[in-house]
Amino acid sequence: MGIRSNVKRQDAIQKATGSAKYVEDLLPINTLYAKVLHSTIANGIVSSIDISEAERMDGVEAIITCFDVPKEPYATAGHPKSLNPNSQDIEDRHILSKRVRYYGDEIAAVAAVDPITAQKAVEAIKVEYKVFPAVFTPEAAFNSLPPLNEEYFSNELARMDFSIKNNIVSHYDGKFSTESYIAGRKDLPAQHFHLEAVHACHIEPNSCFAYQDGEQIVIVTSNQVPFTARKNIAKALQIPIGRIRVVKPYMGGGFGNKQDTLYEPIAALLSMKAGGRCVSLIMTREECFVSSRTRHGMDIYTSMEFEGSTLSKQAVRINANGGSYAAHGHAVSAYAVTNYFQTYTARDTQIGESSTMYTNLPSAAALRAYGIPQIAFAMESQMDDAARENGIDPIEIRKKNMMMEDFVDPFDKFVVKSNGLNKCIDRASAMIDWYKKRKEYDEFNQKSTQLKKGIGMAIFSYKTGVYPLQLESGSCRILMNEDGTAQIQVGCTDLGQGSDTVMAQIVSEVLTIPEDRLTVKPFQDTDITPYDAGAYASRQTYVSGGAAKKAALTLKNEILNYAEIFFQEKKEKLDLSEEYVVISENGERLASIADIACRAQYTNDQKTHTKHLTSEETYTCFNISCAFGTCFVDLEVDVPLGKIKINEIVSVQDSGIIINPQLAEAQMHGGIAMAIGYALSEQLQYDSSSGRMLNNNFLDYKIPTSMDIPDMKIEFVETYEPSGPFGNKGLAEPPTIAPAPAIRNAILHATGVPLYELPMTPEKLVAAFVKAGLIITEE
User: Fold this and answer.
1) Residue 734 DSSP symbol
2) From the centroid of its chain, how far is CA 736?
3) Contact between residue 682 and residue 664 where contact means Cβ atoms under 8 Å apart
4) CB of 202 closer than 8 Å to CB of 253
5) Least packed by Cβ within 10 Å: which of 343, 460, 474, 738?
6) Domains of the chain: residue spans and CATH
């Protein structure tokens, strides 16, 4: 069927029948079970650990503590290796931590014959600490003593400060600030937005097991970036990369939270201590919340000035809470601060400041859309505030100032060659009946005091891939069988989004072999699978799809080479059609692909150079593209209760040519659902004195349920992106960007009350309505 068709998922049967094997399904017999001892302080040093009681317990096979691990730190981020010192990930993690940096830090681990014994042994370990005062916000952490990382005395991990003039970026040395003016300039008064940290909440917990196979350590893990994980694990254990083998089976969601190396080194070190036996380390749901990664909590200060409807000045300051370890360093904040000057461009003044601070909270890193949901909430909220203040329709003020085709990015200098944003807005506004409802709801709200109706919108731009900051490459291997079927191996990981299916469609488009005769191997194995940087930045179809297309074209060339030998027809006059080699001019069939593959492999006439038809190619992407889109929300506000009822969400996205419309729509549904939680209910809560997470479970952490998800109308505006393998670009992350500000702006339209914090819970809404006089309280 090829591209632009609703091909059945490669893993449909496995997942429908329950036969798909995830990490826990693959545990060998006689596996040891590991449990981790977590710190009960947020900041300090482990002064002593007594494991004697735990060692005496029956069934305990291995114990390691923070005093037993290699002293060399390693990086955990899932970024490919960079040879540029300025782009390398920060190495500040040890397998177990003597220097405690958050409540829940890993300080010891036990492997035992069953989980209960392991947990009892962990509880028997006695720990003494030297305790330091804990700091949980960037402003509290700045210059606090002792520093959380001795190499960053102020606790500021990194900064990025710049001005832009004539599309040229000039960097300067800024300083951490919470003042109400950006860059100290009185002409840049700032609106403060506060956004809480949230969690990915993937269904499958972070899981791994490790065992020794001869000199090699095998780690089976639910990790989005197997090759980078291998590199990080080797550094953590201080052994050669070739002695590490990482296998990624089926994965039950990741959303960026499985891009980092987490417990894999612990499981591997325990296995080494237990004589090579298999050791499993499956996070509990409570551990997932605390000990994996979060989306960055941010304080964002924005300033916009308009002359009429034209944006003349824009400035932003981001103070990001990076948590206890560097993880992705300043990359998320840098991604966010630069996006502020990509989506919109001011005519005169453009100033950006950003900071990422170490604190005593769990580490923040990648989470679906990598900092853009945070900056988009601030940016799109202030855009609506400006429209309201200046009496301009929110659509019109955006169209006047938003990124257009041929935009040249001031930072990476890429040129936008496809942009369907204008059409996205037009289509979505028509689908939701924007202009009619705005007028109707204005009239309704003048008469109704307790129930208000609103309609709001927001837009986004989102870069696909990370070039030129880091290398963007992926590889694909295709193995032909003599009956015309084929196996496909790719290093990019399918997290559940369906990328394996898309790879099959791309190969099918070139080779004309139907997808049900192509098998994409769902496991990645660093000993066998061709290299790929992994799953992040919505890059799989854009970058790894380029490798699949390149490998398919190489294999097509091989097939036609043998057809020329067998039939004495010039290769240039041949093509493939419906699994046959045909003469291009008239479509005459010469032979099936199966026949060519069989004859190429098995002809035994002493003159034919027999060959198993295969291809393997690496594709390196030297481009970036931008996905665009918009979200419109129709909702009702119960003012006295602070309750939001979303009636309808319309989302229209430009992701280039859509390879599989059904899979694409599913990604849109999932992204919108996540964004509703981000907007209205989700936040990680901590004890203000100890730093202990208070809601690390699904009872207290409020993700949306099916009852909270409204009707969704999804469409795509197809443009052709010349740098994509078939005109496609990023798709899966962007749907989660625009809904939160669109909901906020719909509340603004309904009530006239601007909101500057996420989540917009009933408590916060009622407080805002009381302050605005919509709710009259008795003194």
Assistant:
1) G
2) 10
3) no
4) yes
5) 343
6) 12-134+200-291 (3.90.1170.50), 402-465+624-779 (3.30.365.10), 473-620 (3.30.365.10)
